[in-house]
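TICKET #2291
ISSUE: user wants both folds in one file
ATTACHMENT 1:
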Amino acid sequence: IKFYPGDPRKIIDFVVSQGEKHRLHDKELTANFQALGLSLDKVRLVEHHQAHAATAYYLSPFSLEHKPALVITLDGSGDGLAGTVSLVDSTGHWQRLHNISSFDSLGIIYSRVTQYLAMKPWEHEFKLMGMAPYAAPEYAEKVFAILNGYLRLSPDNLSFENQGKLWGNSLLEQLWHDLREHRFDAVAAGVQLLHERLIVPFTDSWIKKTGIRNVAVAGGCFMNIKANKLLMELDSVDDLFVMPSCGDDSCAIGAALWEGSRLSTEYNRENLSGLYWGPEFSEPEIIEALNRYSDAVDYRKSDDIEKESARLLADHKIIGRMSGRMEWGSRALGNRSIIANASRLQNIRKLNAAIKMRDFWMPFAPSIKWERRHDYAVIKKEIPAYHMVMGFDSTPPAREHLIAALHPYDYSMRPQFVKQEHTPGYHRLLTEFEKLTGYGGVLNTSFNLHGWPIVCSPDDAITTFLKSDLDCLTLNDFLVWKKGKS
């Protein structure tokens, strides 16, 4: 690609088109479908970015309310594209307005910078976002200027242009050459600036071009809560919907939504509210699991587990909570969470040193009662934030009540606003905690050890509990503690 004399996008288009031709004739794929008793005749291929776009639109309020929407997708790469812009009118008719080639990918730039900083590309980009506020602005600007020489907005602000003609390994090699004398925090801040300064005017320009002020977004680039915050605050945006877990983990949902909408104009769909779509476990299953670990844990059934949990949190105990159906996606939303009293900074040290082992600069996040959201978050527009995909500035009370769940440097937050109708038990726990302390939120992080997947089953939860320094564990209505500790 680096030395190709023509347009490198043509290489990408050719490779993708060949892959599309042969994908359904792959021997392994065919064998797997036959083993499942499925016919390839019933398979429909949905383009990667169309799947992203379908999640953004069909799960947004704009779809149910028959409002026109501007649908934007941005990621690293999928089926030869790194982004799309579509217009969906009030009748549900789609019009693809623009494609961005993978050659002009903002997501690939961010991923390669992640790799340059010796972190896992396509996984640890959030660590750069967390590190970015620590850098001095003048140093961040120098890195931004370098990266903006690689990728910049088109003259009309309606697309991205790969100015450096760098892609893949050639991009990584150039980063080694250009950034080796710049501090790690400045590099993180510089790529975050690039991300924000491309996405925000790009979106604003498409809003002004189309006149559509309702925006729905998906694709991995929109997992960046700092950029989402700036989009939410744009004067041109009336309403914004960010698809939760909008990376590739939601593409299967999008493919189903897209094909469903093609099959029937009366396709039944609903807005996202809670994301508690995973498995749940019965009382006999929990007791059976607990009895398997009877040599290591004691337990009892609580008359009121939410009230008892609130008392433990008020006493600064750190709890592993497994309750009801598991949440879907990349954010723990209370049902498979580690929760703690967020009013004491020392709890961060305990969480990091003995349980999570997170990088020292990475913030935790708060779960906040819906009714207390204005007490703690600076909310400029009433755009729901149920799923931890939006950043907010914090208020002075938040810096007292929720200090351990804010970014340590700039005091920003990535909150889960908890509604009673989405998760009644978790909301009640927060209510009972509020009665004891006056605080309307707690620290919430995923229930797992560093590098492990989030717990799903009672066995997962008990194993994680025993391998950590969690103070106690709750499994639905059961309170669990380690042998010899009460």
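ATTACHMENT 2:
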Amino acid sequence: MNNVKTVGESQLISGKFHFFKNDIIYGKINPQLAKYVIAKQEGLSSADTYVLDAKNGVNQYFLFSLLQTADFYKYTLSVSMRTGMPKINREELNAYNFTAPKIDEQNKIGIFFEEITSLITANQRKLEKLQELKKGYLQKMFC
């Protein structure tokens, strides 16, 4: 199949964004849905996302925690309510102001919330397994 051309060979512009492990993938459409994740591996994301990589003395995990605050959520709602599809543009995202502690404190905050997230994920998996177990027992009991 040598008739298949790559995007580069076809001189097309891709709307996808390259991201690396630990980059933040932030969904820019309907920001009130709060879609964001820290990438566990390298890849490509949709054109409907921004790839965030903390700079200027801001820790990546601290930034990720900041995206989850009520203040940031209110900000995204206030700037994204247009006619049609709510969306936050890059300038609006970059215009968000926040204060940050020194980098060592940011590291501690980021690690703390990452550990809590991991705990929540582990317990959600346990809960799902217990719910399936309960469902199976109920089916056996009433069949």
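RESOLUTION: both attachments delivered.
EXTRA DETAIL ON ATTACHMENT 2: The beta strands are 17-19, 24-27, 36-38, 43-45, 49-52.
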